[in-house]
């Protein structure tokens, strides 16, 4: 019995066990992404792809200090593996694309890029909830979008339409939308 306990782990067991913990990690990462997406929370501009971001970000909070708009917050304890990583909730405070957070990151988790190349997510508009598409006058989001005329345009001079190729996912449209809940929301990248 004792000899059996001490038997060396065979290759098949090793791979099965390795695969099982890899699976657990993948499920954990997917659930973090899902829960961040559900809550409409975005990573700061220039963030690495999510799995790499979680591995590289040391949770130092320097991007938070660098953001004079106070757009970046740290994830609270409920999100386990993502605890203390930086997020932006655009309905509370969107990103104003000053890009001051990027050079403040000492770990390479936020990479330098021009404003037009930022892809924090993509705005999605619910026409059934949008005042303009329902026949009322509203151009609030179009007037405030920093890339108005390219990322957010007016169809027939009155209805907003998102151009997903140009949208940087800053969340200003979500922040200013007059409806509750907002008719336009940014889906994280
Ligand atoms: S780009 Fe500017 S406003 Fe946006 S999160 Fe970074 S520091 Fe804050
Ligand atoms: S459509 Fe919204 S998220 Fe996209 S660039 Fe304009 S304001 Fe930002
Ligand atoms: S601000 Fe909201 S309600 Fe107004 S046009 Fe934009 S999406 Fe529609």
Can you describe what's shown?
By secondary structure, the protein is an alpha+beta fold. It has 2 domains: 10-116, Alpha-Beta Plaits, CATH 3.30.70.20; 119-189, Alpha-Beta Plaits. Helix content is 31%, strand content 13%. It is built from 7 helices and 6 strands; from the N terminus they run ααααββαβαββαβ. The strands form 3 sheets. The chain has a two-stranded antiparallel sheet. The longest helix is centred in the N-terminal third of the chain and has 28 residues, at 11-38. The site of one iron/sulfur cluster has 13 residues, from α6.
Short description:
This protein is of the alpha+beta class. 31% of the residues lie in helices and 13% in strands.
Number of strands: 6
Order of helices and strands: HHHHEEHEHEEHE
Instruction: Indicate the percent of residues in helices.
Output: 25-40%
CATH third-level topology of the largest domain = Alpha-Beta Plaits
The major sheet is characterized as:
2 strands, antiparallel
* Main sheet strand line-up: 1-2
The separation of the N and C termini measures 53 Å
Please report the first level of CATH classification, the CATH class of the largest domain.
Alpha Beta
Residue-averaged pLDDT: 86
- How many domain units? 2
Helical region count? 7
Low-pLDDT segments, ≥5 res? 1-12
Strand residue content: 5-15%
What overall geometry do the principal axes of the alpha carbons give?
globular
The CATH architecture of the largest domain can be given as: 2-Layer Sandwich
| Helix-strand category | alpha+beta
Q: Rg from C-alpha positions?
A: 21 Å
Task: Catalogue the ligands.
Answer: iron/sulfur cluster
């Amino acid at each position: 019995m004792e000899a059996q306990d001490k038997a060396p782990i065979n290759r098949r067991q090793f791979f099965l066990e390795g695969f099982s913990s890899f699976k657990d990690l993948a499920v954990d990462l997917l659930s973090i992404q899902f829960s961040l997406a559900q809550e409409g929370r975005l990573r700061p501009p220039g963030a690495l792809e999510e799995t790499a971001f979680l591995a590289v970000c040391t949770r130092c909070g320097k991007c938070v200090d660098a953001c004079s708009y106070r757009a970046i917050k740290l994830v609270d304890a409920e999100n386990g593996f993502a605890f203390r990583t930086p997020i932006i909730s655009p309905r509370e405070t969107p990103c104003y694309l000053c890009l001051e957070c990027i050079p403040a990151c000492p770990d390479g988790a936020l990479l330098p890029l021009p404003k037009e190349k930022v892809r924090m997510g993509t705005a999605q508009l619910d026409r059934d909830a949008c005042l303009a598409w329902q026949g009322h006058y509203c151009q609030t989001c179009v007037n405030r979008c920093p890339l108005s005329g390219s990322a957010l345009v007016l169809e027939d001079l009155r209805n907003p339409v998102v151009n997903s190729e140009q949208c940087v996912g800053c969340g200003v449209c979500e922040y200013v939308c007059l409806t509750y809940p907002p008719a336009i929301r940014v889906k994280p990248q």
